[in-house]
Amino acid sequence: MLSWTENRGLKILVTGAAGFIGMHTALCLLRRGDSVVGIDNLNDYYDVRLKHSRLDQLAGQGDFRFDALDITDRPAMAGLFAREGFDRVIHLAAQAGVRYSLVNPAAYVDSNLVGFLTVLEGCRHHGVQHLVYASSSSVYGGNARMPFAEQDHVDHPVSLYAATKKANELMAHTYSHLYRLPTTGLRFFTVYGPWGRPDMAPFLFTRAIIEGQPIDVFNHGDMLRDFTYIDDIVAAVVRASDRPPSADANFDPAHPDAATSNAPYRVFNIGSHEPVPLLEFIGHLERLLGRPAEKRLLPMQPGDVQATYADTTALARWIGFSPATPLADGLARFVSWYRDYYRI
């Protein structure tokens, strides 16, 4: 896990602390000397045992406290903010998954909209210095121009999940404008690595290949993904949290830049800037696991997109950082973790 050595001793709320990115982020903050309060509702969207195992990784790692709390619980969230006096908030809790939004849309409204509002309200009323929150590459929807840049229009989402993430950016801007709350939205591109989510391709494909089961390959394999290793993501999250935005003096409302504002607001992509064909990705896993995958070629799924590709120029300018972990190295670390965790 990467660490960072500036701005030690802050009190930081990490929502979704039992999640994949949340656990790694909390661990990085603890190792650099921050005090972290983690919250998570520990829902059963995927195996709760994995979430508890992630929390076990945080136990004894410094000044860490965990509260099993749902961000949609308005009184509990208000009490948490009033009681703790956070310096910063890193908001990673959300109902994740594009395909699940087709069968349980209410979960996305509750967690991603109502829950985000409770976070914004807590930050507004209790003097939080900076709110960093997870957005998603899914906001680019059906856009065809590559790579995706923060200045691109994101008005055509193709899933409810994507729509809620765009809504988060709009809500954050409103609070930045009205209450001068510094907010930074980070559009994650296909995050993978040790302790990853079981509903994502690296985990699903690894399990299926090991068990000799077929894997579902959508759009007949004609897919590109900008896979981004977890350590790169966390380094960017923490560095971004260390630089609260101010109003952009060069912002021109006659020609508005969607990634900045005359309010203390920014939005950035975090991706590897190296999209990989899905079949190449599967080939890496086959070599690492020492066996071929049985591929079940299927049409494109509703809500999916054919390609993602991040322009990370703005992020590099803002925090002097660009993700750099090669896919082969990152997948090797993931497979090693998977074999160790499941004792295979």
What do these coordinates show?
This protein is an alpha/beta fold. 38% of the residues lie in helices and 15% in strands. It has 10 helices and 13 strands. Strand 4, helix 4 and strand 5 form a beta-alpha-beta unit.
Write the layout of secondary structure elements.
Layout: E1 11-15, H1 20-31, E2 35-40, H2 48-58, E3 64-68, H3 74-84, E4 88-91, H4 105-125, E5 130-136, H5 160-179, E6 183-188, E7 191-192, H6 201-211, E8 215-217, E9 224-225, E10 228-229, H7 230-241, E11 265-270, E12 276-277, H8 278-289, E13 295-297, H9 313-319, H10 327-341
Parallel strand pairs: 1-2, 1-4, 2-3, 4-5, 5-6, 6-11, 7-10, 8-13
Antiparallel strand pairs: 9-12
Helix pairs in contact: 1-2, 1-7, 3-4, 4-5, 6-8, 8-10
The whole-number mean of residue pLDDT values reads 94
Element-by-element helix/strand order: EHEHEHEHEHEEHEEEHEEHEHH
Number of helices: 10
Distance between the termini: 23 Å
Strand order of the largest sheet: 3-2-1-4-5-6-11
> How is the main sheet built?
7 strands, parallel
Percent helix: 25-40%
Determine the structural class based on helices, strands and strand pairing.
alpha/beta
Poorly predicted ranges (pLDDT <50, ≥5 residues)?
Answer: 1-6
Instruction: Tell me the strand percentage band.
Output: 15-25%
Structure summary, number of beta strands:
13
Radius of gyration (Å)? 19 Å
Write down the overall geometry: globular
